[in-house]
């Protein structure tokens, strides 16, 4: 195919009116569980994000965006896609260059660019970006008519151990902001001190935590064995819901701070465990299918199993009648085999096996991008 030149395309700020055009070039992307159709309009309203479309003969042929994070000193590139009929003609490179040039011009304090990719990124990308970390990706499908039975099977696979270990608790955001100044050590749980939440790699600075609060990200935490109380400083032990108190539909007799007693890890060396999840959303696959991303931080397999079960129970409570779940787990590679066994008999979902985090240092530019961008 003949490569396109910059002058042949028009790159503009994306608008609400471009929604259908972006959907048209996104059909089948991410195996039908693309996040962008659901998040597009919310992204447009985010003051920290800029979104771009490339048009050829008035038709959308590419999309890209960046989000300024870490209090203004870093940015994450997200959502890049090119129309299937335009691939192989240099379109991705053109819109990526424009996105980066705009970022450097409008945000001169940004010195680092991050992005996430599935396995096997092209060598040209690895020549520009440094590798930070990778996580195992384990996707499964829970159909509507098998949800109840699947939860029972998972619960049966969690052995009763170490009654003294504090059960996991959901944190409110006052506790989230104090999380790593208490019994948890950031370096023990977060490789490169980065949270990777639904493919977004960010630090734990206050500005990012405030963003996550607006996105309604939930934090579930297991504390180290010697930390029996919550980071709020209260002397009250968190309320514990025994597994017998959780009903078949996943509801519990108390709201929030739910946990399963008697299922904690037995090792006294556990340094804590953390999981993050954002609200489920419907995906282009249709038929009531919803996507749930669960990001796991830590290396204790028992904690990971407990967190997954609790978060799935919470998800089922929010699931519309007749809905099903495509659940994507992101965990340290050392947990892959154990979690694969834990999820055995659940339907695997074909997506990817690995999540890579890449980073590049950048310098500001002094001249506008070469392709005109209209407001």
Automatic annotation (TrEMBL):
InterPro entries the UniProt entry points to: Acyl_CoA_acyltransferase, GNAT_dom, Hisat_C
Alphabetized Pfam families for the sequence: Acetyltransf_1, Hisat_C
Domain N-acetyltransferase positions: 9-196
Molecular function, one GO term: acyltransferase activity, transferring groups other than amino-acyl groups
Annotated signal sequence range: none
Domain of life the protein comes from: Eukaryota
PANTHER family per UniProt: LOC100145250 PROTEIN, N-ACETYLTRANSFERASE 16,-LIKE
Protein name: N-acetyltransferase domain-containing protein
Organismal lineage: Eukaryota, Metazoa, Chordata, Craniata, Vertebrata
